Amino acid sequence: MHPEAHAGLARMLADSGLTPDAPWRVLDLGGRNINGSIRALLPAAEWTGCDIEPGPGVDLLHDCTTPWPAHAPQFDVVVCTEVLEHVERWPLLLATCAQALVRGGPELLLVTCASDGRPPHGAAGAPQPAAGEWYRNVPPLALNATLGPLFEIVVVTYQAVPGDAYARAQRVIPT
Predict the structure, then answer these.
(1) Hey, which of 7, 40, 80, 87 has its CA 20 to 30 A from 14?
(2) What is the pLDDT, as a whole number, of residue 36?
């Protein structure tokens, strides 16, 4: 994870009001550790890494463009960093994030993603997407429009350098 995304996530976490040293149950969606981790930001948390492919940091395999399984664990916090730009159906993934949050808890989703102006890059850390790999930057307005119907509180910011969108969403709207 590049330093700007790590810093953006730390800011959103501070703005959320969440106590960082509590034993939260955190789902790290897209949790395969490719180029760094954010787990030190919540050092007392119980982390579960979820990804579509096995790898370092992955505890649970699931295609999160499909609904969260009824038998799967629920979480206080979902963190999704640098994933959306690699997923064609990323709005479905955000709906799955909301489904994975336990009601009555913090119900907090933190997202970082490549956005307007960011050069393409590969999902596994390569400087370019692999042949056949999906890649599209996620515009901040589209991110906000997708999260709005899912959460009561949505804050989306954009950082031109390096071209990232950051989102904090809280309190899942019941469906």
Answers:
(1) 87
(2) 67
The residues, any chain, with a CB within 8 Å of residue 150's CB and separated by 6 or more, are: 94, 95, 98, 169, 172, 173
158: Cβ–Cβ under 8 A, 6 or more apart, which residues?
A: 115, 116, 140, 164, 165, 166
Shortest CA distance to 56 belongs to which of 28, 75, 81, 86?
28
Which tokens in the block code for residue 13? 């976490």
Burial (CB < 10 A; 0-12, 13-18, 19+), residue 71, is exposed
Cα angle value 116/95/113 (rounded, 5°): 25
Residue of 20, 19, 37 lying closest to 28 (CA atoms): 37
Residues contacting 40, CB < 8 A, separation 6+: none
pLDDT tens by residue, 72-125: 999 999 999 999 999 999 999 999 999 999 999 999 999 999 999 998 888 877
Query: What end-to-end distance do the CA atoms of the chain give, in Å?
Result: 33
Residues 6+ apart with CB under 8 A from 51: 29, 30, 31, 32, 57, 58, 60, 61
The predicted model scores a pTM of 0.94
Share of the chain above pLDDT 70, in %: 97
- Show the CA angle centred on residue 56, arms to residues 130 and 2, nearest 5°: 60
